[in-house]
Structures are given as structure tokens and as C-alpha cells.
Amino acid sequence: MATFSFDIVSEYNKAEMNNVFAAVEKEIASRYDFKGTPAAIEWLGDKTGFKITGAGAWQLDTITDIIRKKLVARGESSKSLDLTKEVVESNLKAAQEIPFKQGLDQDDAKKITKLLREELPKVKTQIQGDLVRATSGSKDDLQAAMRLLDAQDYDFVLKYTNYR
After folding, report:
1. How far apart are the first and last CA of the chain?
2. Is the pTM of this model over 0.90?
3. pLDDT of the residue at 96
4. I need a labelling partner for 91 at 20 to 30 A (CA). Which of 84, 111, 142, 154 fits?
5. What is the reported pLDDT for 97?
6. pLDDT for position 1
7. CA–CA dist 126, 134 (Å, integer)
8. Residues contacting 64, CB < 8 A, separation 6+
9. Angle, nearest 10°, between helix axes 57-73 and 14-30?
């Protein structure tokens, strides 16, 4: 009997993040309420996140909202943004780093495996580093697992790869 599998991962689309960056940069440059302010967006490190700068926390919130809208417009989830970093204010400027969330941590992987084990006993799961592999003898069971996971409201992005 053939076994089928797929991987459950938490990752972002790098090409779409490039597009979001360009769109946000363009909107910041063209908005009248940002004229004459230090409002800007930059890449963080090796394109692992955004660094936003503004006149104050209120302007950072506005830029964050723009980022969220651009993500949604491109079909990406804003759950891939780690908004837990503190706002740093100095010299009449405020800055915040927004790294991207990448990979499942152990607690999140355990939540996924526990849910699948309880709801769909025919689907077997294995935690493999920062991903979870789901296997079953039936493609229908795997599709039911995807629907079940999509119905959950996790605070991280779920994507399915390596479907065989």
C-alpha cells in the first residue's frame, strides 16, 4: 500500500516580501503626511526582516498597518511578522525592528501533532527539526488534516510543502 505525506512548515515567501518592501517604500515616499518626517523602511540584516523608522510610535504604527495591508494584498499573512520587539526612541526619531518568523518551534510543532493525533488518528505525524511531517495511506486523510489545520487560529503561518 502506498503512503502519502506532506510537510507542515512555517515560512514566508521571500519574493513576496521583496514586493511588499518596494510597495511600502513607494507609499511612504508618496504620502503627504510623511513629507518632511524621518519615515522610512529598510531591510534588517540579510533580508530577514524590516526596520522601520518614524517621527514617533504613532508613525511606526501607521507604517506597520501599511505593511500589513500590502502583505494581505499579495496573499501573505501578517502572522509572519514578529512585532514583539520594542520601539526605540532617540533624537526625535523612533525605530522598530520587525524580523520575519521562520520555522516551527517545538511547542508549536507539539500543538500541531497533538491536534492531528486527537482528531485524525489515521494520520501519523513526526516532528523533524522545524517542520512536521504528516503521513497517511489515504490522500483524503491528508487533505482533511490540511483543512483541520487551516481552521485553527494559530499565531504563526502554516504552509504545506513536499506533498507526495
Report:
1. 14
2. no
3. 94
4. 84
5. 94
6. 57
7. 7
8. 52, 83, 96, 98
9. 130
Cell of 120: 485524525
Which positions of the chain have pLDDT values less than 50? none
What phi and psi values does residue 133 have, to the nearest 5 degrees? -100, 130
At 41, which helix (H) or strand (E)?
strand 40-43
Contact 54, 62 (CB under 8 A): yes
The predicted-structure confidence for 110-145, as pLDDT tens digits, reads as follows 999 999 999 999 999 999 988 999 999 989 999 999
Rg (CA), the chain: 19
> What is the grid cell recorded at 38?
524621518
Q: For position 103, what pLDDT does the model report?
A: 87
pLDDT at 164: 83
Asked if residue 98 lies in contact with residue 24, where contact means CB atoms within 8 angstroms, the answer is no
109 forms beta bridges with none
What three-state secondary structure class fits 89?
A: strand
Note the Cα 20 to chain centre separation in Å.
Answer: 13
| Type of residue numbered 121 | P
Whether the CB-CB separation of 156 and 104 falls below 8 Å is answered with yes
Q: What is the C-alpha to C-alpha distance for residues 86 and 64, in angstroms, rounded to an integer?
A: 13
